[in-house]
User: Fold these one by one.
Assistant:
Number 1:
Amino acid sequence: MWSLHLRMWLLLTALFGFIYALLTIIGTQFLHLSGISFYIILSLVMMFIQYLIGPKIVEWTMRVKYVRRQDYPQLFSMVEDLAQRANIPVPRIGVAQIELPNAFAFGRTLRDGRVCVTQGILRLLNNDELKAVLGHELSHLKNRDVLTITLLSVIPMIMYRIAWQFLFYGRRRDERGSGNTVLIGIAAFLFYFITNLLVLYASRIREYFADRGSVLLGNKPENLASSLYKLVYGSARIDRDSLKEVEGLKAFFVNDPSCALREIRELASLDCDKSGTIDSEELSALNSKSVRLGFGDKLMEILSTHPNMLKRIKQLSSYKAAGSTYERLKV
């Protein structure tokens, strides 16, 4: 299975490499385009191609099968109810044929939205917890997060092209000004790194918004907190090879499964009665506590697409403390 996925990613790398090379040849040899403007245009074209074929890549990688109402009536009922509350079209519903417990949403537009759950999550969560997770995913669709992150991602891509242009081609064009071009290239590469961090930060912010959106759709904060807790220890039980299979798509998930072993140690203290869930009293108790992260945890969060799980559940506890009613949160 791992070799199959390796071949798939090599194929995708070769595909994008071929597209990049083809566009470069067309632009430089036939359209006589060069310089920064060409690389900016090329980055935009690559982003657009990725945006178009992205859903198919997700479906292929996650082995998604779209299901019928008669096969999963409760799942359909939950999604339809949440879509009505969110005032968005009902997305296509799929089940990913993998054991890793998680869920994800994707699609180019609201009308093209798809929400998927894995076989693992269907066995792990109860109905209230599953509905809270689905509310999180439909909030991603409602907020157009896929489009937002795609558009933001083009900025570091452009910075990278500019850095490449000045570091490797600028010197050839102007030997006397090579020092300046190299400095510009280094500055662009620095901005590439910074903008990448900003895109990751934006991704973490969108997770907080989606959590809040799930509560706005009528789900109780403790149900979402309990589901996050279960997803962490469910992911911690999955073998490393299975985690590697979905490494490139973990940004789509409710939580980052690669951080599960570290996060489970932090979250175990929240489950005071050792029931395997986080109830309303345990969540309220967290609200009165301060959460302090060590340097390593802060660094890991900065480089991650998802917020630190303890901080995330702490934020959910503030919704509970505020009453967490639909009207109160909407203000």
Number 2:
Amino acid sequence: MNTKFLKNIALISLVAATFSACKKDNNEIEVPGIENKEFKYLRVLVTDELSSKITMIDPFEAKVNSFDTKYPLASIYGISGGRYAAVLYGSQNLAEVFDTGLQTHTDHVDIVNAGKWAAITATNLKPTHFKSSGSESLIFNDGEGTLSFGVESDFNTAGAKFRTINAGINPHHGAMAQFDNATIAVTTAPVGGSANRVIVIDKQGKRLHESTMEIGAIHGNATDGRNAVFGGFTTSAATSGGVLVVSEAGSQKLIPNPEGFGAFRLATILYAESANKFIGYVASKGAYMIDIVTNKITPIYTGNDTYQCKVDFAGKKLYVLTLDGKLRIYDLQSGALSKEGNVTSAVVATDTYKPVMEATAKYIYIALPATGEVAQIDVTDFSKVIKHKVSSRPVRLALTGFESNAGHND
């Protein structure tokens, strides 16, 4: 299970401070007091379509710092421990790790170094899919059918490399999930084909549980640490969809999509840790709750206009952004809509790179490729916006750090 240390701690400092914001336009509102600021140890990372830069935003201090990357258009993923982020260059066969310098000590957070590149790298073919749990990180390498395995204690060791796990899987666009019992669920595929089965292996690549179900074109997955859910079609004919549920003990079952869903698969699967809920999403049909106990998939938002669907940092709420610029926030315990309103201008469905979104308990962050900015929007009042100029065309965004204001000297 992904454990996010201190992410749900909200210790509010009693020291008043003024907010030193970046240059404002007419749509921006200055946030006056510490109680209205983002958490002190939360960071936003952004990469660009055109420039070889990664930008780190410190929203609490309204500071923006950029660092050189090897290539543009890097994929970024916050790593579960909170300090690091994985940076993948799939086309260049390279993976790196960025170090924010934020280190947790359970009851507080220290800043042990300024933002920098960690030492560890991986050079397997087409690193594409990333997952992390505890101190361990995994990358699926589409060009090889292998996994790259790394632990945080090695990240800043000079010359460190991710270790390759080879389970004899054919190269394909794959996915994997980490179980709490130290095993891994990973997709397999026929030669030249799409992922259609899931096996369970150990960290050396030994096959522990073979596939018992074949489905079609698996894409998207998430885990609660005991069960992994994979989106896909029910058969290779791709006439109907469902989700494959694989347990850490190797058992497998298929939960079909709702009646009348059509020839669609839930190609993105999310897990909301605090709410303990699985969510499936596809742009053409909307967002759906997946209940692996009752074997039911039920609608949260139905529509063909969704282009971003994200769980917030703590895993309590679901954020659904549609092409008309409207954001809907759902409470995942009840599934009820808790807030909605416009947060961006309308988006063209055919745009290759649309705005991308992440959210904390206090703010929504939306990278805007057209303006080179990240909009920081108050979750309680969508009219309160702070804009951070980051790069020419920001198209990837991730959150790292901790939802906490508790530092060593606070």
Number 3:
Amino acid sequence: MLSSLSIVIPAYNEAATIEASVCDALEVGAAHAGALEVIVCNDASRDATGDILDAIAARDPRVVVLHRAANRGIEASIRTLYAQARHAWVFLNSADRQWPMTALVPMAAAAEAGADFVIGMRSNKREIYTPYRRLISWGYEQFVRALGAPGGDPGSIKLARRELLHRAVVARGVFAEGERIIRAARAGARVVEVPVEFHRRGAGKATGARRDVVVRAVLDFGRVAASLRLGAPAPHLPEPDVTGAPGRIRSRDHRPQRPRGRRAEPSLREAPAGQRRPRWEPRRRTARVPRHSRT
């Protein structure tokens, strides 16, 4: 059994599956860890994902929900989740149920046997992915192996010591997940692969193979290679994108701005739980006194 575990889940428009995913995480995690928390980052979902998560968190104190005011993408969510995790081990899984939470069982066994970083290896991607998606996944694996990672499938689920995930990186997009594996292996961590179940997405929409995502990953490969071989750019520890206490957490890089010109009505959308206050405080204006009447 793991000493303590944070199960982290990025979510965007996953109303159809999020409740089942969190409930499974609570059940499976409690059976394999002495202390447990489940953290979900709601990346400005447009459906009922946020409301469902708030209801679950109200019932179970082990569930922490992070709400972002504007969509930032999966890597920003993952970065935030790693920073918010409090326990010794961190298990990253998706909200779409392509990987069942029971995949934690063989991965936790590998960690108990001495592994520091466990990657869930998908052996049936040929049956699930389109040829284009398989090509993207294969290229990602080759890039990561070329830079020193002993295991492939960097886009899959992971179980690792927290310090190996919440660490300094140079990649700005999804290649950061591969970079974390590379830097862990080069630092001497024991990285292993464990076969896990992998299913077709039942709901929602996958975005990992969009052209802009792929282009950024290729650029990040060059940045990481330069950093490892030349020392520049230097890696830095990403700052979390949200601040505040568990509950409705406001995005740090999307703070509400004071409107210009005509004063707008303050919004209560992002007020902390249990409070009703505006997102910004309007500046009080005082009447100007004509110069000739001043004393």
